[in-house]
Amino acid sequence: MNNLIWKIKTFNELSTQEFHEILKARINVFIVEQTCPYPELDGYDQEAVHLWAEIEGDVVAYCRLFDSGIKYKEASIGRVLTNQNYRKRTLGRTLLRFAINTVECRFRNSSIRISAQNYLLPFYREFGFVEVGETYLEDDIPHTEMKRD
């Protein structure tokens, strides 16, 4: 992964090509791979800070970040993904470390809430997130809210 480039931009800073590549990655993971036929566009992209890694223009890891008061009372991280071809290489851990650091520095906020797919609860616990609610279905996939202070 010598050609890995990290980028962080607000929605208005994204080029059309960058947003296209981000959406392609999100659709590949959250709709195609997870067989989840639900709309990917939810009206929050315009309010997000987008953090991603790319190799030769292809998005290989991505998440979006929100200041407090947008998705939750706390700041939040969402749409966390790693391209299927780049898993098991610690890229997801690097992405989440960057995301937490960015939220803390950019938003001056250390309290972060996420909606985690249940199979990833152990992964998020490694970063200090704890479950704060009951399991619920989001797009027919079990999720649990987690918080990190």
Automatic annotation (TrEMBL):
Q: Which CDD domains match?
A: NAT_SF
The UniProt entry, under InterPro entries, shows: Acyl_CoA_acyltransferase, GNAT_dom
Entry protein name? GNAT family N-acetyltransferase
Domain named N-acetyltransferase is located at 9-149
Query: Does the record's keyword annotation contain Transferase?
Result: yes
GO MF assignments? acyltransferase activity, transferring groups other than amino-acyl groups
The record's annotation in PROSITE patterns points to: GNAT (PS51186)
Q: Which UniProt keywords apply?
A: Transferase
Q: Which Pfam families match?
A: Acetyltransf_10 (PF13673)
For this UniProt entry, which segments traverse the membrane?
A: none
Native organism taxonomy: Bacteria, Pseudomonadati, Bacteroidota, Flavobacteriia, Flavobacteriales
Determine if Transferase is one of this entry's keywords. yes
